[in-house]
Amino acid sequence: MVARSRSVRRPIAPAAYDCVKLIFVRHGSAILLSEFGEKPVKVGDVIALAANTLCGSKPEGSITVTTIYLDRDYIVDQVFWQHAALLADRLDAQDFAEELYSEPAQVLHLGEDRAGMLMPWLDELVALSLDGPTPEKFYRMQALLFGVLDVVAPHVRTTPTRRSPTQRRAIRLGTLSPRNFAPLRAEARQAVDLLRDAPEQRWTLQSLADAVHLSPSQLGRVFGNAYGKSPMTYLATLRAQQLARLLRETDLAIEQAMREVGWRSRGHAARMFRQAVGVTPTRYRDLVRQKAAA
């Protein structure tokens, strides 16, 4: 989590970030350019943007905003604990969150009075973010954020969704690099789109680099800066997510499900899945069925 305040006087071209953004308008007004088209925003409005959502703005004179940048995995963790009685694990929580918050860009009209109550908390979050997060600041930043979200969340439009309870153990796949929440380069977004559209393909770093017209080393650097992990680690995570979904929602044999998501070796697939979810695919399916029968 990072919070920053800034004043803008010139148009900002649409850019996407690999994080969730909450933008609080403190002064002035602008025309927002996003996936919902063009919309005016003014003091008292909050813009909620999902990760990888293009957004730009044209200030009407000038506009001052405070932006809270939230890591996607952090959001998924909060959704998991908020709905822990319904969700199996973090992968299930990710699917749930994508269905629950299906609108990638929203303008929330809090009003000047309600938004004004948040300004001291936002100012403190910005001050605490200046030197980066530290363990000593952790609880205060969480408290401030939750106070802000408590006011903002009732205004966020959601989509009704349901999930079946299964198992709850999950860990993260791969070691993450520090995040700087910089705008995503087009090549990084293109590479992610290719992996998401066809995770079952026999991707190598070289073939993915060729597809986005970069060298493997360039792609590794660009991708790591954008998403905090290597392209192949990202691919393994996608495959683990899809395999977990198939194990929950279909009766496919485990080995067939592994092939469906792009893993040809059962041993390798089981090892990668366990790194992502915390249990083997066989144990995962057993836990799903036990919960369903309970």
Automatic annotation (TrEMBL):
Keyword DNA-binding listed: yes
SMART domains (UniProt xref): HTH_ARAC
Keyword Cell membrane: no
Pfam families hit by this protein: HTH_18
GO molecular function terms listed in the Swiss-Prot or TrEMBL record: DNA-binding transcription factor activity; sequence-specific DNA binding
SUPFAM superfamilies: Homeodomain-like (SSF46689)
Keywords associated with the record: DNA-binding, Transcription, Transcription regulation
InterPro entries assigned: AraC_XylS_family_regulators, Homeodomain-like_sf, HTH_AraC
Annotated ranges, domain HTH araC/xylS-type: 189-287
Protein name: AraC family transcriptional regulator
Native source species: Brevibacterium aurantiacum
